Amino acid sequence: MKGPGGPLLRPYPNWSWHNSNHMCDGMVNVLRVNIRCNHIFVLDSGKIGPDYICNPKLLIFNLKDDTLVKTIYIPFDIANNATGFGLLLEPFVYVPKKCKQFLHKMIVFMTDLQGKGLVVYDSSVKSMCRVESDYMIPTSNFSSIANQKFRFDGGIFSTVILYDELYYVTTPGTKIYKIKIKSLLKCPNIKEANKKTKVAIKIPSNSGQIASAGHSIFYSDADGNAILGTNVFQKSGKNTVILAQDDKKLQSISSLKASYHWNKLIGLSDRYHRYALGTVNLNEVNIRYFEMDLAKIRKKMDATVKMKYSLCILIILSTAIVSFGVELNVVHEWKYCEYEWKNQQQKENAINSKSYDPYLCFFFDAIKADDGRVFISTPKYFDHGVPASLATVTNATGPGGPLLRPYPDWSWHNNTSCMCDGIVNVHRIYIKCNHIFVLDSGEVGLKQICNPKLLIFDLKDDTLVKTIYIPLDMATDEKGIGLLIAPFTYVPGECTQFLDKMIFNHSNITYYMLTTIYKSELFLAKIVISCRNFRKIFLYLFYILELYYSIAAGKEIYKIKLDRLLECPNKEEANKHIELVTKLQSQSVYITSTEHSIFYGNNIGMAILGKNVSKKSVNKNTVFMTDAGDSGLVVYNSFTNSMCRVESDYMKPTDTSCSIAGENFTYVGGIGSITVLDDDFYFAAISGKEIYKIKIKNLLKYPNKEKANKQTQLIKKLSSQTITLTSVGQSIFYSDSRAMSILRMKKSYKYETVRYPYVILYVSI
């Protein structure tokens, strides 16, 4: 059945699994699924937007009757990295032999997109661990699709298995890596994992999901709008074939899988870049589900390898020839996602409550079960817009296209009363031994709502057979950042009792924040943005002796002598003179300093931290953390190991009408910019036009609001809001957001504002 948008989607297994009163008993958010042994593996991230609504879990349904046969809950400390970030994306189920008792033999691999890691679950010994490697971290924070660039903080995106090795790709990235399964089962640390990892394939541009069949790995070329295959057992340069290329139909291939039951290479193209750039048009076909004949692909691969068309391959890569001899069959098309609702009232309620928004609901993964059902994941990247994160494609069609049926049913999704018992957020899924492995990251948007978990459903009857919870310290890296995305299950032998023998793995991706620091003797402050090679210096601070800088998409602070910069060194010379100053927990949007101390933001924690860069130890440091949302200040004194919250009426917003570069908008924000001069603490509200000060010694006494009001002094009224403050010597520097300028205020008997001469230093990397 079709609607105005295309074939209608029927929630899988039914509506009861989605958006019910017991949300955590259903499905919350599914990005990808996997089918194995006539079972669909549904990885529910448990997240809606940035929040964890429920525990991440893997649901396994039997496709014979769509009953849940197993639920594997994923503890938060495994589903997220050490800093608490993670998004479970893709489940991959490995069954070593036949499907007999596969639930006791399978190995499930789950990718964590945000936390940049891999969760491995071995059902034979019922063990689960988190594996991280430097190769799981992308080298860029920008992605490109059809030569349209946009920011994408990615990580390990997809996994497949060939023989005894796990292959994975990071997005963004131009390499496919491999590592022995036996090495992963030992739960290696980062150093050991790095040693065991090898580069398997160099790819022309970013790739979405990868697949495998025979001796070959299949992947996409995001800029070339093409699908390629590489025989990993042939020499490089003689082993790659372009299987299909279409500038219209193959824009952004997010899902790619080999189905042995149907002998098809199946995929999903979704024009993701249009959503990312805000240019999607719901009147156009945006989503396509396609199939390619695996037998023809193998024939094409064998013929090309035998003829050694290495030169032809290079020519094809550069000219993007359209005809490659393998038919691309588009089975389903959507303008936007459309669900099989229980009734019209349910749909209207979902629209009114913003739990359903076609502009925020885009497809991420697709997999085909042995019974012919196609499973679709629609991750919850925002805190609203996606009513069911995992669904099957129905024969009915609505305005947007084929209707989606929430899986297993509506009761598993968006159940507000018991969300963590259902499916929260699923990126990728995996099918093995006729069970579907659902990796639920437990995140909604950027918030960890529930514990990550792996749910295993028996596809025979769609019953949950096992739930594996993933501890947060395994789901995230040491900084607590992670996003479980893709599960992969390995079953050593036959599918008999595979649940007790499987090995489970999932990957992780991290969000980075910007941080920049500098020492005393400030000479110049200037905001600079450089986009070369997709890298940015967002904010740098210039000293008479040294320049300290940070990369926007990085967590390190570097420095270089000013006299070296004035010599205009080339890249090689500059590299020699640049020193690493410190590594940070996250990126920061703004910084400030005084004397030997710097203060910088932590976007993840919504805090401002302080550090004495001239000392190795920070035991006696005081950390000031601004709360822009609730207009307060958190003061931590590490010398006394004490912490308190200070509030004042002067920290509240006073003018919410903002203007930057002629653009007017409303923004409500409390204290957001701070600096220190002598023994005074200076601050300004984001939505305000005043600079205040208070004695640091008074802050360390933890005054109540009444005392803080009395001890606070007005220093300066401004012509517009200021985003950041900094100080050096006896001067305070602040920005004028309306005039796009930097002003200097000298401290004397009376504060005096003067023009500050400055030279613009252009930094390009």
TrEMBL record:
Keywords: Glycoprotein, Secreted, Signal. It is found in: Secreted. The keyword Glycoprotein applies. GO terms for cellular component: extracellular region. The keyword Signal applies. Its main location: secreted. Gene3D superfamilies: TolB, C-terminal domain. It comes from the Eukaryota. PANTHER family: GH10609P-RELATED, PROTEIN YELLOW-RELATED. Belongs to the major royal jelly protein family. This is MRJP4 protein.
